[in-house]
Amino acid sequence: MSELPNCPQCGSEFTYEDEGRLVCPECAHEWSATTAPAADEARVVRDAVGNVLADGDTVTVIKDLKIRGSSGVVKVGTKVKGIRLVDGDHDIDCRIDGVGAMQLKSQFVKKA
């Protein structure tokens, strides 16, 4: 019998396999059995022109971006300092002067 990996979320050793997915009975976390996440594997986020982005970088907005729930717009050329990379569709967390905290997609910025 093969040894199943511990849960990546809570560390429980009581994981089991269910229809090709691994499941943790303690925290109900599910993940793919074929692509178990590697601890040393880092996600690479690239800007609109292909430069690799990192936490703390300064980027420039390359397109007017409408702000949802508001009539405001983030204009082309707006510099955003001290970005933070996060998981998800909008992969940049930042604070824009005059607008506040926002999440941006990396495809609409370029490294400054």
UniProtKB/TrEMBL annotation:
Designated name of the protein: Zinc ribbon domain-containing protein YjdM
Family the entry assigns: Belongs to the YjdM family.
Lineage here is:
Bacteria, Pseudomonadati, Pseudomonadota, Gammaproteobacteria, Lysobacterales
- State the InterPro entries in the record: YjdM (IPR004624), YjdM_C (IPR013988), YjdM_N (IPR013987)
Q: Pfam families, alphabetically?
A: YjdM, Zn_Ribbon_YjdM
Q: Which residues form the Protein YjdM C-terminal domain?
A: 45-112
Domain Protein YjdM N-terminal positions: 3-32
Organism in which the protein naturally occurs: Tahibacter soli
